[in-house]
Amino acid sequence: MKNPSFNEPTSDLLEVFRRTRPQIPLDPRESTLVWMMAVTLVFLPWALGTMHAWSQLTGFVLALLCLVVAAVPREEPDYGPGRRRPAWRWRLLLRFPVFWAGLVVLGYVLVQTLNPAWVFRLDGEAGVWWMEQVERVGWLPAGVEAPFGRYGGHRVLLILGTAWMLVCALRMGFTRRKSFVILLWVLALNGLLLAGLGLAQITSGTDRIFWIYEPSNPRFVASFIYKNHAAAYFNLALAVALGMAVHHFFEARRRLKRSDPSGFFILMGIVIGLLVVLSLSRMGTILAAFLLLSFLACMFYGLFLSRTAGVHKAMALVLLVVAVGLGAFGASRLDLGAVVDRFETLSVDIDDRSTTMRLKAYEGSLRMIQDRWIFGWGAGSFRYLYPLYQDREFERTYFERPLYWEFAHSDLLQFPLEYGVLGCLPLLFICGYWIWVFFRWGGYRRPLGAFIGLGLLATVVHNAVDFQFQNPAVLATWSVLLATIGLMARLERSVRRDGPEGAG
Prior knowledge:
The chain has 504 residues and is mainly alpha-helical. Helices cover 64% and strands 5% of the residues. Strand 3 and strand 4 (128-133) form a beta hairpin. The longest helix is centred in the last third of the chain and has 30 residues, at 411-440. The protein is globular and about 70 Å long.
């Protein structure tokens, strides 16, 4: 038998030299949870943005199933003496501040819903509805009583509960970096598919979503009934795609790889960004441009500092040619003149009826907040009670009759209006907690977390002039991404410190 010599290293020696770590497969229950979360987050935008009762109920049930699967006990490696220990995942919730703060929010909305100060009345024959004031428990938060099909506190409970359960499932069930990466891949690919749908619909000139469903709003985009909701969702997908591109680009540079999937994610970003522009959402396009410029600055930095700059510059040149080709195709097949005309109104916003009406709605919303700033008017109450503060005579100068406002067109106003200071405090605590986790564990130092964070910030900025969080698909995706960058930052720091094998 021939003995191995110095010039013929064994596979074991090569394994040690390359410092590769054995990849531990995902626990079957965690793998199931990852794909259930993926299915839920894919379903929400495709179901017309989850703006209807049937889709909100379905999303709630899917999120509940995710929570149940995440809570199922599993066996995990002990990484020490070789034993395996049972992991009762639900115990993590007892030490999870977001779990308790979310319960407070849901309980607050439930009290508002069960203690109505106004009741919805409808005259079916005349087709007229009105709100009737009723007795309530004065020292408790109050709301409105409305049919489930027309929207109200019950529907808000479904929407908030869905986002809350998804975040709790993420905290309990995701223990590996690989799980988060799979979920981000799915979100980016889903954004690409939805963008492809939107571009196909624009190119074909159809007036129906999926070519079969006629929406109430003719300015729909992809599967979203409202264009600004579409822009907000696609900007989140854009942030994920660009973050993955930068992450893989710098990882390849660090490991001296000649190929990586960053080019694929860049193409994703180009397609998604093109749809945001064609959605005719002004603020959405401005925020998409901000994300793209941030990405270009980051790539410029990497290209000219990379030791393999020649390879990456060649890749960048190819991608530039493809981007120009896609832009030329879009310009030839799509009405880009409408985009230019739309943005020309930015310089004359005072003459834009939409802007003028929104400013009036903001004034009325501020008066509502001042009159009931502690408890708020009740979750889902704006569409029913705003007529009490609506400037009807002013609206008649622009339209034949006063408008019907479903939302305040600014979540930064509608949330305090409906929940009051007491209801907003736990929501602010949840956001503050995740921001603290993100910075505490250095998430801002990683390109992936930083870019997703920019996308989350862009949604908040967009909320100043619109109602993005009233769309369940946007709210749930935003909440999951916020939790993802915080949990990934903590997990990656723990992996570097403790070094469990196969962190994925």
